[in-house]
Amino acid sequence: MAHKLYINGRWVESSSGKTFKSINPANEKTIGYFQAGNKKDVDKAVNAAIKAYKKWRLVPPPKRGEILLEVASILRKRKKKLGKLVTDEMGKQIKEGLGDVQEAIDMFEYMAGEGRRLFGFTTTSELRNKFSMTIRMPLGVVGLITPWNFPFAIPAWKIAPALICGNTVVFKPSSDTPMCAVELVKILEEAGVPKGVVNLVTGSGSEVGVPIVKHPKIAAISFTGSREVGKFVAANAGLKKVGLELGGKNVIIVMDDADLDLAVDGIIWGAFGTTGQRCTATSRVIVHKRVRDELLDKLVRATKKLTIGYGMNHDIGPLINERAVEKVERYISIAKKERCKLVLGGNRIPRKGFFFEPTIFTNVKPKHTIAQEEIFGPVLAIMPVKNFDQAIEYANSVSYGLSSAIYTNDVNKAFIAIRDIEAGLTYVNSSTIGSEVHLPFGGVKDTGNGAREGGILGIEEFSEVKTVYVDYSGKLQKAQID
Question: Fewer Cβ in 10 A, N or C end of the chain?
Answer without folding.
Answer: N
